[in-house]
Amino acid sequence: MLKLQVSEIQKELQKIKFFYKKKYGAAIFDAKARISKNGRLILEGGVLSEIQKTQAENAVKKSGISRIKNNLKVLRDPREKAEIGWGIIKPDIADMFSAFPGGRREKFRSDKFRAAQLEKNDIVRILAKKGSYSLAQKNDITIGWIKESQKSKVKSQKSIEKWRNVKRAKPDKALKIRLTKGIRKRFISFLRKYLAVPYLRGGTTNRGLDCSGFAQKFYGEIFGILLPKHSTDQALCGKTVKPKDARFGDLIFFRRKKKNFPHIGIVAEAVNYSESAAVHFKEVWILNTRQEQGKAVVEELSDILKTYKLISVKKIL
Fold first, then answer.
1. From 3.30.930.10, 3.40.50.10090, 3.40.50.720, 3.90.1720.10, which CATH number describes the 182-315 domain?
2. Are 210 and 199 in contact, with CB atoms under 8 Å apart?
3. For the segment 165-183, what is each residue's pLDDT rounded down to a tens digit?
4. What is the pTM of this model?
5. Which fold has domain 2-74?
6. SS3 220
7. Of residues 127, 117, 114, 113, the one with CA closest to residue 150
8. Using an 8 Å Cβ cutoff, are 119 and 128 in contact?
9. C-beta separation of 212 from 296 below 8 A
């Protein structure tokens, strides 16, 4: 009976794998089920995300088996030692793609599937290989496909340890750091370097940035803190505060009024906030880059709210 159930579970797991393969061109979903000696069902193997891990567990629960031990490794977690190697980037800029660019995938659009970008000498964790591509992970937890030819082997163990131990922003918690006079100097230097940099979907370099890449650069260069690359991950970081309590450096999250696109800005200055039946903002300046402007700019919050709806404010520090 149990063997029959395991066979059915394997079919469900294959359906999940096929879903991701169809969506992204290649699936890293290697979940397997087996029965232990004491009759417990064990899930093992590797999946990319916590969402996939939950999906695999739910596939087991459908069968009616209650005794489950979920040993699946989540490859996205930088603490997992599940890599098959390490690489160092050779070109000045290399794109990472969320979908597999090779094979028979039709009309592959680099702008649509660009997950992030890498710069020369960046270290990446290699999770899988397929054809002439590697599935790589940046130290900000972003995962994407890169060309094998764009990397060489990392020989320095110190570089790998530095990758693992970078100071990352934490979920649901504001980090404590000592603010110094140097922060003002770094902020001015940041504005000179990145204001007017063109908008680029998935961009993370001074040749092009999107809103989450811009926020990541801000925290990395001014405070030495690494934010995740994507807006959904950035929204999990820090502590939620009320808009009236927003201060310099806080992340502010928006959504398009007519579409479901998320947008992120950084509070550059917030003064004279007043609240009434209709919330009204006065002189709140937001540092951001968005597609409509085509570049990184400082805007009044009231102008952004003509197109976007404010969702939340997160205090990272």
1. 3.90.1720.10
2. yes
3. 888 888 878 887 776 778 8
4. 0.81
5. Histidine-containing Protein; Chain: A; (3.30.1340)
6. helix
7. 117
8. no
9. no
